[in-house]
Amino acid sequence: MISSNSITNNQLIDNGGTGATSSITLVNEDNALLSGNRIYDTAGTGYAIDIDAASAGVVLTDNVYSGTGATAIRDLSSNTEYTQHNRITVNATDSDFASGAYTALTITQSGTGDIVNFLDGSNEVFTILDGGNVGIGSSSPNSKLTIAGNTNVSSYTNLPGYFINSMPAVTGSTTLNNFFFAGASSTSFTNGATYNYAIGNNTLTNLTTGDYNFAVGGGALAGSSISGMSGSYNNALGYQSLYKNTTGSNNNALGYQALYNNTSGTSSNAIGQYTLFSNTTGSNNNAMGYASLFNNTTGSYNNTMGVSSLTSNTTGSNNNAIGYNTLVLNTTGSRNIAIGGLSLLFNSVGSRNNAIGYASLVGNTTGSYNNALGYGVLFANNGTGTIAIGYQTADNALSVDRSIFIGYNIDAFSTTADDQLNIGNLIFGNNVNGTGQTISSGNIGIATTSSTARLTVQSTGTSDILNLFETGGSEVFTVLESGNVGIGTSSPYAKLSVLETGVDQNRYS
Predict the structure, then answer these.
(1) What is the pTM of this model?
(2) Highest mean pLDDT range out of 1-5, 88-92, 221-225?
(3) Cα(390)–Cα(377) distance, integer angstroms
(4) Cα 156–161–162 angle (5° rounding)?
(5) What is the C-alpha separation between 381 and 372, in angstroms, rounded?
(6) Are the C-beta atoms of 185 and 179 separated by less than 8 Å?
(7) pLDDT, tens digit, for every residue of 463-493?
(8) What φ, ψ does residue 95 adopt, rounded to 5°?
(9) From CA 133, how far away is CA 187, in angstroms rounded?
(10) How far from each other are the two terminal CA atoms of the chain, in whole angstroms?
(11) By residue range, what is the domain housing residue 15?
(12) Of the candidates 93, 115, 134, which is a domain's last residue?
């Protein structure tokens, strides 16, 4: 092995002859210096300089070559350093200077021209303008970095990407089709989670095996640092929406902290700030409106639309609430329907109630099986099995059970009696207690609340008590307010008057 030879300042013309011999050949040379040589060969087919693989550490400086037999340098060795017109090697090692704290390459542009231009043939591929703007694929960068063309980022970690001030801007895994934007990042989905998309700081941060999740907003679908996040097919839009979800799937949360505490509950939809906030394992709930179903934990199959509707519900299920503050205090009551602001407002454990109309059944707390249709109907009643239809119908009732009220602004004649009937303050009944095919034991009164027979009729003023007409419209039976009864006459002048056409009138008294 030959070391540290110098070949400098030679002028070689057709030195390789007409064959494939190179003008300068290095064989097994270490640390040789080739500098200032002028090589011109028009006859041969070899190389200007040929360095074999056994050589190492060769330095080439300011060598010029041309001609068909000197078109290139062939370098098969290692660690060659170049200072050539077509190639430069900058090898800045600490051993070159004692301190080691130096700049390997400094380029100074004192004029107004470009600082650096890199060309691939005639195509400018890299540019640094005077002033410092850098262009990749652009010769006229208008910002600190301008890239014309596609970019590709890869690394050996789960999530290579772009970072701004140490915050991930765009990261992702093309093999698993997981992509994270604007601060979102995760390195825990090594078990094969796929097709997940996250936008916002700490979104999907603990993703493990869940698939097809979409999260937008800081902390959305963050999951647990201990249990991970393996739920699938969830959509979370809003700060900390579905924040604690771990295994729950098929949930949709839209709004600040919607479904915040959900862990394993499935197939629920929450729209609005704090909707279904406390839900943990409850499933198949639909909540729309600020704080609706806020305290629900395990209740399922509830549907609510309206601010604070069903907000206190915890384990009640199969409730439907539409309107502001509907069923707002319900906790465990189930299978209730409330439509209209404040309807069933104070209901807590009552079940199977139907209230349609603003403030209907508002005072019911524990009563069940009630049906109220109309504004303010059964407003204060806390009973069971009562039916009321109309405007403010029976709004004075307090604890009435199994009663029927129909009419505009009519009251219960007793605020606590059960089994009542009131239709339009005209038809009244008591002991309306029949169920199934059993006949009720009570009485009916017309214009009286104190019926003493199966049918009691009481007149008011001077009007007739009873008039019966045949098909053609003729009055055939009459009871006057005085008590006189007429058969075939509408004007009986005795206690009983009977009149038949063509026959003498008979009178009975």
Answers:
(1) 0.70
(2) 221-225
(3) 7
(4) 145
(5) 11
(6) no
(7) 899 999 999 999 999 999 999 999 999 999 9
(8) -70, -15
(9) 34
(10) 157
(11) 2-93
(12) 93
